[in-house]
């Protein structure tokens, strides 16, 4: 999908991005002038206290919430001005999203939930199935393929949602607390998969409270009251420890 005009562009860039919720008359500023730049292949963890605007920010990056002002660019293309259907196309083709709530389709099997985005994007059924088998296997869910989402625990549903978001091999993976409901063993599976796809070149922007998750990232961006208060590269530490995925394997 890359064209010459996209080469060298950041995967994501925001310019003075602002979100003010207007509910019940009183304006609530959730994101207050965020300038964020994420390079292709970079893994950025977004941290910060509850209410600091993390979910609002990643929702805007995925077109799930509209901005009040400012700009959002994805691979050199301005997207904050897109309408809902154009966003739907962009999400189908370029952006994978793991929500805090999993949004699985209840009357479809786990396997179909994971394969659907790839099929919608035009992948062959065989390739969609292979990718699904790989992702569910990595996440310890191979034996749940034929289950309905309602038969799964919260943690299992959360991992299915991650598999679904990665099914398309999206240019950018956006995730809002993807390990929020997981015990330590399942968190380790998720970390291993994130490390693996990151090594394969996956761009990731991920909200987390978990230091282990943030430890895999190239950079940690910290939000406070809707503003970036810290934007620290953690690359030097990563270099001395080898690849991100190796770290997880050493620990497991
Ligand atoms: N739909 C909404 N309507 C009104 N206020 C909201 C809405 N969503 C979030 N907020 C407010 O915006 C601020 C940031 O929220 P959020 O982005 O969810 O923070 P975080 O994900 O860091 O916990 C909070 O003050 C929250 O109450
Ligand atoms: Mg949140």
Automatic annotation (TrEMBL):
Alphabetic keyword roster: ATP-binding, Nucleotide-binding, Transport
Gene Ontology terms: cellular component: membrane protein complex; plasma membrane
Occurrences of domain ABC transporter (ranges): 12-250
Pfam family, one: ABC_tran
Superkingdom per UniProt: Bacteria
Entry keyword annotation includes Transport: yes
GO MF entries: ATP binding; ATP hydrolysis activity; transmembrane transporter activity
InterPro entries linked: AAA+_ATPase (IPR003593), ABC_transporter-like_ATP-bd (IPR003439), ABC_transporter-like_CS (IPR017871), ABC_transpr_LolD-like (IPR015854), MacB-like_ATP-bd (IPR017911), P-loop_NTPase (IPR027417)
Name of the featured protein: ABC transporter ATP-binding protein
Originating species: Sphaerisporangium rufum
Taxonomic lineage: Bacteria, Bacillati, Actinomycetota, Actinomycetes, Streptosporangiales
């Amino acid at each position: 999908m890359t064209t010459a005009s996209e080469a060298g562009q950041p995967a994501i860039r925001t310019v003075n991005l602002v979100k003010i919720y207007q509910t019940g008359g009183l304006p609530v500023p959730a994101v207050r002038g965020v300038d964020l730049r994420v390079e292709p292949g970079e893994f950025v963890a977004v941290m910060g206290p509850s209410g600091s605007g993390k979910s609002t920010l990643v929702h805007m990056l995925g077109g799930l919430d509209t901005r009040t002002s400012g700009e959002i660019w994805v691979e050199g293309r301005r997207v904050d001005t897109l309408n809902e259907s154009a966003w739907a196309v962009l999400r189908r083709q370029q952006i994978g999203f793991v929500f805090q709530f999993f949004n699985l389709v209840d009357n479809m099997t786990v396997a179909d939930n994971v394969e659907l985005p790839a099929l919608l994007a035009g992948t062959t059924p065989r390739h969609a199935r292979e990718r699904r088998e790989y992702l569910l296997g990595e996440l310890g869910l191979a034996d749940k393929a034929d289950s309905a989402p309602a038969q799964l625990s919260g943690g299992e549903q959360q991992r299915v949602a991650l598999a679904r978001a990665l099914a398309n091999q999206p240019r950018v993976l956006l995730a809002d607390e993807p390990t929020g409901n997981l015990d330590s063993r399942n968190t380790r599976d998720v970390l291993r998969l994130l490390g693996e796809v990151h090594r394969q070149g996956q761009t990731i922007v991920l909200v987390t409270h978990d230091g282990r998750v943030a430890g895999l990232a190239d950079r940690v961006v910290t939000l406070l009251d809707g503003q970036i208060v810290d934007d620290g590269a953690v690359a030097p530490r990563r270099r001395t420890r080898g690849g991100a995925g190796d770290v997880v394997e050493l620990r497991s």
